[in-house]
Amino acid sequence: MSCNDVASILDTHRAARLAPAERTQVDAHLAACADCAAAWHAHTELLALRMPPLPAALLERALLASRLPQSAPARRARMPLIVGSAVLAGAAAAAVTVVSLTRSPSEPTAMSAPAEQAGAQQPAGGGVIEQVGAVRSNEVPDHPISVELVEVALGVQPVVRKNPDYPPAGLKQRLEGHVQLQFDVTATGSVENVSVIESSDALFEEPAVRALSEWRYLPRLAEGKRVRSDGVQTIIRFAMAKEDAAAPKPLSDEAAQAVMRQFAAFSTDLEVAIDRLAADDFRGAELQLDEMQALYGADRADLWSFYGYLYTVQGNYDRAIDAYERSVAIYLASPSPTSAASTPLANLYYARHQYDVALRTLLRPLQVANAAGRTLRLSPDGEALIERLRALGVTEETL
Tens of pLDDT along 358-375? Predict the structure, then answer.
């Protein structure tokens, strides 16, 4: 029993539900750690305080208020770091777009014509790294089970993504192409054994392999533990931005360098959080995310997805749902709405037997994209979850 374990018990209010053996370990740790003993005592006194009765309509008013659209505060313009960044190599390279489409080895379909199959949207002049990953959800339970015992499975999720350098020769010739790669994701989220499956031109292979080797993932969860994933595949596409009169003007060299410095700092801080998570320092990972939120703002979708993953690992489903809801809202409010974070959020609702809410969560990004005149597809696991809901009789017609 460590200080992090005690903090996790207090954060999730599990003190009253500890098994006898676990309580014995807690008592032994409290006897040896004055700080944890003080925190435990303060928590106990706080729970013992007499609370006034809540107004009967308070919960209903709070739920209603949480669903009202909130006006976003004014903030200075900056390049979004939600799903990627432009590859900048001087003014000529500022228009380069890199798109990545990821799948798990369980996906049955081939990856020919990747951009068309995934319905990837590429905003003019900006770089995008789009995740179309697999999130394994549970089989339909044969009988009701407690929420605390529900196993929520998540597939690998990219968090730190380094854009590959556009080959100078390809940039000079305005050459476009793609590289399909296969790799393994360790239980700590690192990328290993990167190999090229196919490419349109060998010119793009080395920069794609080098960049992917530096990516970091939130590893797949299976039976409550982070596990290794072998044979994950991704496609990185190299494309020149198309001329568009409506597109924003390219950034100056100085502004572009400032954006890339911020992007690099944000990625480095995310790696710190991943390393703490890998070391089971859940409290440290959460504090790192809190610091990043204060430093970079609360409009980072990847940040809230990380919160959601962290709380899911801890079994704190309420906070995980809140975090994923914020991540989904940010993704859907972006110029190119995506379905990222929608499937893990829907899995959480499914695990809590809120089947209607799970289906609405999966359909929401499709509806937003359709309203914007865009084509969007769910990940294979999102589509599989829709089929599972249909088997339960939950369809668009029943909503």
Answer: 999 999 999 999 998 888
Contact 191, 228 (CB under 8 A): no
Q: How do residues 138-165 score in pLDDT, each as one tens digit?
A: 333 333 323 333 344 556 788 888 888 8
* DSSP codes of every residue in 333-380: HSSS---TTHHHHHHHHHHTT-HHHHHHHHHHHHHHHHHTT------H
d(CA 174, CA 132): 27
pTM surpassing 0.85?
Answer: no
For residues 103 and 347, what is the distance between their CA atoms, to the nearest angstrom?
18
**330 CB burial (10 A radius; 0-12, 13-18, 19+):** buried
Amino acid type, 370: N
Report the alpha-carbon distance of residue 242 to residue 247 in Å, rounded: 9
Query: Do 309 and 341 form a contact (C-beta atoms < 8 A)?
Result: no
In order of start, what are the domains of the chain with their CATH numbers?
3-49 (no CATH), 91-398 (1.25.40.10)
The secondary structure of 171-211 as a DSSP string is HHHT--EEEEEEEEE-TTSBEEEEEEEEES-GGGHHHHHHH
Contact 184, 148 (CB under 8 A): no
**Long-range CB contacts for residues 349-357, cutoff 8 Å, separation at least 24:** 349/321, 350/137, 350/138, 350/385, 350/388, 350/389, 351/138, 351/147, 351/150, 351/151, 351/152, 351/317, 352/147, 352/150, 352/317, 353/144, 355/389, 355/392, 355/394, 356/394, 356/398, 356/399
Q: Name residue 178's beta-bridge partners.
A: 237
